[in-house]
């Protein structure tokens, strides 16, 4: 398709925010835009003109101060799409970078992992303002719940989608609820690929999240591991966790909670000491393994593993030097064991 013809809602439809009108001269009436980054695979790609009728402004609202305006629209074949208009040259640049990612790096994932991409189009409104617009398949609304409010099954489905992306050696860099759409049928799609890393060579994810193993370290990718931990992906009725610096972790990798609490002094609980504590406690857990001492998930809930003199001596010998103040932390490097 070479051009995009857009018809906007009638004048009696509630107008967009004043901010949008000021930045992008909406509503300008019908406009014709020329393909900038076309799609060769979308339905109707053979057509000369893609005709879209916008019926509803779905983003932003009056309290929002963003850089894109998104309309719900229908095409001449009644397909449901979204029209994303950039409201500034900077956002137009981002919109076109994302369009490039859809057209090139995500081409084979359209319609399953990501929305169908119909193209990016550029032109001018009747006031001479430059317009950039991307047309995508409508796949529902952004998640309204935080990940941890979803069921474990739903979290696993979302992570399955993210894992498919990593199998292509691609990473979203900053993954959040903002990157997920959910349709009325319960299907998930990933969006927002402006910051897509297409050369994520360090990822060793094989496609198996190892949810049944209850051990995030087996995933093969530190980025996926951390996202999964934040989403409580390995949490189930049979899993035991420990808390370090206010964050929950799989008990299999660390000493029992009573030992963690006994060794953690008040200043160690500051957020900047978390990597120091994790490294330290992992070492203590490894030492306990050599002594044949079971971890928390291998013991009865009522059973308490006492901190022996051997464990305490090893802990003191390997305790890293940890900063007591934020200022001290900013001058320190990686965790360093005590000598």
UniProtKB/TrEMBL annotation:
<dbReference type="InterPro" id="IPR011009">
    <property type="entry name" value="Kinase-like_dom_sf"/>
</dbReference>
<protein>
    <recommendedName>
        <fullName>Protein kinase domain-containing protein</fullName>
    </recommendedName>
</protein>
């Amino acid at each position: 398709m070479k051009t995009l013809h857009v018809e906007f809602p009638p004048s009696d439809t509630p107008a967009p925010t004043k901010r949008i009108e000021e930045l992008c001269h909406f509503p300008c009436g019908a406009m014709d835009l020329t393909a900038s980054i076309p799609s060769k695979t979308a339905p109707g790609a053979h057509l000369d003109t893609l005709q879209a009728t916008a019926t509803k402004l779905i983003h932003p609202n009056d309290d929002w101060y963003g850089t894109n305006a998104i309309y719900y629209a229908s095409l001449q074949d009644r397909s449901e799409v979204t029209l994303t208009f950039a409201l500034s040259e900077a956002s137009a640049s981002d919109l076109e970078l994302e369009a490039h990612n859809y057209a090139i790096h995500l081409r084979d994932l359209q319609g399953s992992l990501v929305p169908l991409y119909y193209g990016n189009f550029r032109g001018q409104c009747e006031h001479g303002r430059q317009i950039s617009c991307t047309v995508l398949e409508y796949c529902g609304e952004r998640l309204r719940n935080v990940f941890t409010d979803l069921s474990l099954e739903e979290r696993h489905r979302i992570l399955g989608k993210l894992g498919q992306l990593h199998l292509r050696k691609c990473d979203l860099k900053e993954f959040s609820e903002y990157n997920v759409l959910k349709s009325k049928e319960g299907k998930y799609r990933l969006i927002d690929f402006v910051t897509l890393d297409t050369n994520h060579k360090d990822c060793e994810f094989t496609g198996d999240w190892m949810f049944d193993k209850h051990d995030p370290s087996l995933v093969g990718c530190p980025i996926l591991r951390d996202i999964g931990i934040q989403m409580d992906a390995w949490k189930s009725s049979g899993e035991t966790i420990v808390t370090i610096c206010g964050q929950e972790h799989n008990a299999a990798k660390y000493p029992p909670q009573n030992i963690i609490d006994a060794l953690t002094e008040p200043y160690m609980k500051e957020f900047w000491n978390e990597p120091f504590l994790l490294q330290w406690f992992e070492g203590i857990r490894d030492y306990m393994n050599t002594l044949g001492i079971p971890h928390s998930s291998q013991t009865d809930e009522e059973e308490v593993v006492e901190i022996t003199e051997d464990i305490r001596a090893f802990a003191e010998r390997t305790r890293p030097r940890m900063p007591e103040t934020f200022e001290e932390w900013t001058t320190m490097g990686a965790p360093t064991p005590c000598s």
